[in-house]
């Protein structure tokens, strides 16, 4: 039987190295030995299919999960999930989580001295539609301090987790907001050298998506790995 | 059109907020076909300290060696009672434990046969990109001809083998960094 095509390997500089010393938690958690090259077999070009049957309709509205409205600037985030070949990726799970407007996570381990919001959990999920589009309604998260170095602050961000058609398209990343002065100082945002790769993590303001007198719109497209045209010889 | 995949970033320490809803520590239901196996272990860092904010995701074939996925066109039966995916948390001491079935052998590249194995993704604060490794089963005869194990330096292969303890539970640790026993991770 002819082998099926695998997935494209990352363009240099667009994906992080495991050891990134400015982000201190990488120092003891990054492998020290060489990675072993993995040819893409059936075990890698397959993966879990977690679809709309596990999602409730309101799961993509983080402002409607409690009896009252959360505090903060109401926003709509939407965008398209494409693969590296430019094709939309329909029907895949997108999970998000984030801090509240004050920069505090509803998490027992977050000890930042900022108020919790009883009307905000910060959890959302959805499935991309037939053309790869997703959408969330939420509030803009606040920046928050962390212990990485003196006076370290994370820029406002939303965590995204995506599956895609195979285990190789699994992606966990973070979305940022335009014009944030903290981006320049953030060792996580700056974990890759490629400037355009970094800038693609920043959503753009979307006036057309903005709902008058209600919520600001942002657009953020996400790209998952794409298949090779032919099986890889290695 | 050629695009580049979006840059990966760490799940951070608070991923539970968004991800634990999908946790599954038992991949089977009563009707699932195959030999039940329990796999347990601990995630530890380069100092040997446990990692209490890691998470594993597991992907595997069913007992017949068939993946529940459209790309798998092997002539083998699907098991309607087995999906093959699990999201497995760690506890306050970095320990995980999950129950599944031992998968069958799976077709490999170039006409080879892959020994029973699980694909494992490791997520944690400090992992800017998730790690990918595999669990094989110690003592499994098919291991000797597995095409991927052959690519792993012989002295490191043991890190991919889950070993049964006296109670029959498979023990397998994730050593993120270490001079001797560091787990083999793959460039995927």
Q: How would you portray this structure in words?
A:
The complex is a heterodimer of chains A (234) and B (188). Chain A has 234 residues and is mainly beta. Chain A has one domain: Protocatechuate 3,4-Dioxygenase, subunit A, CATH 2.60.130.10. Helix content of chain A is 4%, strand content 24%. Chain A is built from 2 helices and 12 strands. In chain A, strands 2, 5, 10, 11 and 12 form a 5-stranded mixed sheet that branches. In chain A, strands 4-3-8-9 form a 4-stranded antiparallel sheet, with no helix packed on it. Chain A is globular, with a radius of gyration of 19 Å. The relative contact order of chain A is 0.24. The model of chain A has no long low-confidence stretch (mean pLDDT 96). Chain B is mainly beta and 188 residues long. Chain B has one domain: Protocatechuate 3,4-Dioxygenase, subunit A, CATH 2.60.130. The longest helix of chain B is centred in the first third of the chain and has 4 residues. Chain B is globular. The two termini of chain B are 23 Å apart. At the A-B interface, strand 1, helix 1, strand 3, strand 4 and strand 9 of A face helix 1, strand 5, strand 7, strand 8 and strand 12 of B.
């Amino acid at each position: 039987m002819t082998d099926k095509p695998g997935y494209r390997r990352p363009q240099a500089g667009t994906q992080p190295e495991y050891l990134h010393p400015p982000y201190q938690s990488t120092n003891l958690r990054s492998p020290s030995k060489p990675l072993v090259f993995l040819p893409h077999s059936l075990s890698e070009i397959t993966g879990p299919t977690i679809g709309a049957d596990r999602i409730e309709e309101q799961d993509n509205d983080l402002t409607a999960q409690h009896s009252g409205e959360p505090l903060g600037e109401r926003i709509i985030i939407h965008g398209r999930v494409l693969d590296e070949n430019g094709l939309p990726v329909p029907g895949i799970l997108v999970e998000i989580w984030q801090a509240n407007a004050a920069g505090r996570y509803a998490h027992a381990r977050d000890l930042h001295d900022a108020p919790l919001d009883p009307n905000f959990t910060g959890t959302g999920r959805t499935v991309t539609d037939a053309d790869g589009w997703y959408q969330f309604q939420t509030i803009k998260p606040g920046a928050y301090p962390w212990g990485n170095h003196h006076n370290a602050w994370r820029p406002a961000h939303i965590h995204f987790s995506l599956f895609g058609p195979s285990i190789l398209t699994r992606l966990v990343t973070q979305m940022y907001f335009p014009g944030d002065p903290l981006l320049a100082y953030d060792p996580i945002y700056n974990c890759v050298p490629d400037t355009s790769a970094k800038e693609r993590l920043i959503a753009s303001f979307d006036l057309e998506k903005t709902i008058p007198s209600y919520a600001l719109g942002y657009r953020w497209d996400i790209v998952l790995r794409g298949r090779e045209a032919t099986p890889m010889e290695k | 059109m050629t695009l580049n995949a979006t840059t990966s970033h760490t799940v951070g320490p608070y991923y539970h907020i968004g991800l634990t809803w999908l946790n599954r520590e038992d991949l089977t239901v009563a009707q699932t076909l195959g030999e039940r196996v329990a796999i347990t272990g601990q995630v530890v860092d380069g100092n040997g300290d446990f990692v209490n904010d890691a998470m594993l995701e597991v992907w595997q074939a069913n007992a017949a060696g068939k993946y529940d996925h459209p790309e798998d066109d092997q002539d083998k039966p699907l098991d309607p009672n087995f999906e093959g995916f699990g999201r497995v948390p760690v506890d306050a001491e970095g320990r995980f434990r999950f129950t599944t079935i031992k998968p069958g052998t799976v077709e490999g590249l170039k006409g080879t046969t892959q020994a029973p194995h699980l694909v494992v993704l490791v997520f944690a604060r400090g992992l800017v990109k998730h790690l990918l490794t595999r669990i094989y089963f110690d003592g499994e005869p098919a291991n000797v001809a597995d095409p991927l194990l052959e690519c792993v330096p012989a002295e490191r292969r043991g890190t991919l083998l889950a070993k049964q303890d006296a109670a029959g539970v498979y023990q397998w640790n994730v050593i993120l960094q270490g001079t001797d026993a560091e787990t083999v991770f793959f460039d995927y």
